[in-house]
Design a protein that fits this description.
Number of helices of chain A: 1
Distance between the termini of chain B: 41 Å
Distance between the termini of chain A: 38 Å
Order of helices and strands of chain A: EEEEEEEEEHEE
Radius of gyration of chain A: 13 Å
Radius of gyration of chain B: 13 Å
Oligomer: heterodimer
Largest sheet of chain A: 7 strands, mixed
Largest sheet of chain B: 6 strands, mixed
Shape of chain B: globular
Number of strands of chain B: 12
Order of helices and strands of chain B: EEEEEEEEEEEE
Structural class of chain B: mainly beta
Shape of chain A: globular
Largest interface: A-B, 26 and 24 residues
Chain lengths: 115, 111
């Protein structure tokens, strides 16, 4: 079975630009969660998608948005980029209920630098 | 809301020595606790978890953690570390629709 893959692995943007990050979930998983990991910090929950619907959201502004597709892959979009958006963005796939069992499978992340 | 606190940002330890990585969680009626590991240039992996039952849980690579309700702790231990244990370790707790992570503890293995 294939694991969780994320693209791109690294990218550089400037303030005010928009970015789209992509995630292919592990085979058979129907839930995708996105996390932001700033330097020296633990991952912070952005939101979760289950069967193409947003199913929970952390303390992030509306300029952070997402999509989940019928094949359960997902995108994270960030508009009007700010310097503080520089971070490693992690995607995790799971079966439903993974947030209770801890069975989240993480990709290696997309490192975003905003200049 | 649930939260976890990892008091140590870095822990240096000699190879083959024992190690303890500390984690405290916010009190709750029921709690699901986890330790994740992040090896260099890799994604996070679930190391072990406490959902219910025995308060001592173990991983396949020799780590163990003990759920202590009275002290609201879930410390991670290993009796003898190896150079391959070099990684960042995150304590985490389930909070309804998400998992909340601590800030992480970087384990440095000294030769």
């Amino acid at each position: 079975e294939t694991g969780v893959t994320q693209s791109p692995t690294h990218l550089i943007k400037t303030r005010g630009q928009q970015v789209t990050l992509r995630c292919s979930s592990q085979s058979g998983h129907n839930t995708v969660s996105w996390y932001q990991q700033a330097l020296g910090q633990g991952p912070q929950f952005i939101f979760q998608y289950y069967r193409e619907e947003e199913n929970g959201r952390g303390n992030f502004p509306p300029r952070f948005s997402g999509l989940q597709f019928p094949n359960y892959s997902s995108e994270l979009n960030v508009n009007a980029l700010e310097l503080d958006d520089s971070a490693l963005y992690l995607c995790a796939s799971s079966l439903e209920g993974g947030e209770y069992t801890g069975e989240l499978f993480f990709g290696e992340g997309s490192r975003l630098t905003v200049l | 809301a649930q939260s976890v606190t990892q008091l140590d940002s870095q822990v240096p330890v000699f190879e083959e020595a024992p190690v303890e990585l500390r984690c405290n969680y916010s009190s709750s009626v029921s709690v699901y606790l986890f330790w994740y590991v992040q090896y260099p240039n890799q994604g996070l992996q679930l190391l072990l978890k406490y959902l219910s039952g025995s308060t001592l849980v173990e991983s396949i690579n020799g780590f163990e953690a003990e759920f202590n309700k009275s002290q609201t702790s879930f410390h991670l231990r290993k009796p003898s570390v190896h150079i391959s244990d070099t990684a960042e370790y995150f304590c985490a707790v389930s909070d309804s629709d998400k998992i909340i992570f601590g800030k992480g503890t970087r384990l440095h293995i000294l030769p």
